[in-house]
UniProtKB/TrEMBL annotation:
InterPro entries: UDP-GlcNAc_Epase (IPR020004), UDP_GlcNAc_Epimerase_2_dom (IPR003331), WecB-like (IPR029767). Gene3D superfamilies: Glycogen Phosphorylase B. Pfam families: Epimerase_2. Transmembrane segments: none annotated. NCBIfam families: NeuC_NnaA. This is UDP-N-acetyl glucosamine 2-epimerase. Residues 22-364 form the UDP-N-acetylglucosamine 2-epimerase domain. It comes from the Bacteria. It comes from Flavobacterium limi.
């Protein structure tokens, strides 16, 4: 079976990884990676190198992003991505193409495949993020897909309501958690030395713009900066940088300015890679920001998450999440609450055992039926 895998960012590649590792070893599959989006961006860490280091038989690369992140530039990048993939789909055929999540680049690649009758398998559909325009892109991908792998039963039901059918819709859990029970972090001393993290508590921070509130992002970034500066007086800050979203540069500029002001209290990371990122989560005191990783994965590491603003609003949450407004005092108060809380011992609602094996079985059964 010839299978393609669309990956447009460090985020989706990290989620895919347990699935890709098993597919690569399974002789039933002929797998080709299709890398585009921020993987080819020097500004975002040129994560194509990580894909190539994993030694797949075939890696296609498609460059389509322009450097700016204002509304017109994002729209233009979307159009260029569609044009590039119109040519790609004309020249390349697959029995199934996997796509994941809700990025605008992913939506563009999928939309270009519709006239060609490409069969897409969508992972992490049916979710809701009311504070991000990704909510629209995610549902666009769902409508174009043939196979659907939802993380929870609620998300599965959302897909059913969007499509008006139960055909080929499965609840499998989050595949990024597939190997979580056997995950071993990098040895603490090695990890801390590698990234020059002082021997003290640190907060793992990731902020992205609220792409449904474009006129508020300057204020939100300012509130973020003020809160982080105060938090740094007590906790070291390990900050992963924003992805290529509309107005992401606004947040980058605030973080870079803050790092210059207090260089000994902040570490800025463009791209951790999955093992480093999971190790960072393992050793962190808590997570802070508005990233989906806090919602999907942190509960499995028994970490509290201060989830700021509306970017993840509507997404199902485990009980480790502390939600707060995008205001300095609200952020500080919530961080204080998380710091004082007893250890989190609850479940992760996104975890289901054997997620990867179940997806592979579903794909094989699907192939036999076509």
């Amino acid at each position: 079976m010839k299978i393609g895998v669309l990956t447009s960012s460090r985020a989706d590649y990290g989620i895919y990884l347990p699935l890709l590792q098993k597919i690569k070893k399974d002789t039933f599959f002929e797998m080709e990676i299709i890398a585009f989006g921020t993987h080819l961006s020097r500004l975002h860490g040129y994560t194509l190198k990580d894909i190539k280091n994993d030694k797949y038989n075939c890696v296609h690369t498609i460059a389509s992003l322009i450097s700016n992140d204002d509304e017109q530039s994002i729209s233009t990048s979307y159009g260029i991505t569609v044009l590039k993939f119109a040519d790609f789909w004309k020249s390349n055929s697959y029995d199934l193409v996997l796509c994941l999540g809700d990025r605008f680049e992913m939506s563009a690649a999928v939309q270009a495949g519709i006239p060609y009758g490409i069969k897409f398998g969508h992972i992490h559909g049916g979710e809701t993020t009311l504070g991000a325009i990704d909510n629209i892109y995610r549902h666009q991908i769902t409508l174009a897909a043939t196979l659907h792998f939802a993380a929870t039963n609620n998300f599965k039901e959302k897909i059913v309501s969007l499509l008006g059918s139960t055909l080929n819709i499965y609840c499998v859990g989050s595949i990024s958690l597939d190997n979580i029970a056997s995950f071993l972090p990098i040895e603490r001393e090695i990890f801390y030395n590698k990234f020059a993290i002082p021997n003290e508590d640190y907060v793992l921070v990731t902020f992205h713009p609220e792409t449904m509130s474009l006129y508020d992002n300057n204020q939100y970034a300012e509130e973020m900066g003020k809160a982080l500066k105060k938090i740094s007086e007590d906790k070291f800050l390990v900050i992963t940088m924003p992805n290529a979203d509309t107005q992401g540069t606004i947040y980058r500029q605030v973080l870079e300015k803050l790092q210059k002001q207090i260089p000994n209290r902040i570490l800025l990371i463009e791209n951790f890679g999955k093992t480093n990122y999971f190790s960072a989560m393992y050793y962190a005191k808590m997570l802070l920001g508005n990233t989906s990783s806090g919602i999907l994965e942190a509960a499995s590491f028994k970490k509290y998450v201060v989830n700021v603003g509306d970017r993840q609003k509507g997404r199902a949450q485990s009980s480790n999440i502390i939600n707060c407004r995008f205001e300095e005092e609200a952020i500080l108060s919530s961080v204080k609450k998380a710091d004082a809380a007893k250890a989190y011992n609850g479940d992760n609602i996104y975890y289901k055992s054997n997620a990867v094996d179940n997806i592979i079985k579903i794909i094989k059964d699907f192939y036999e039926s076509i």
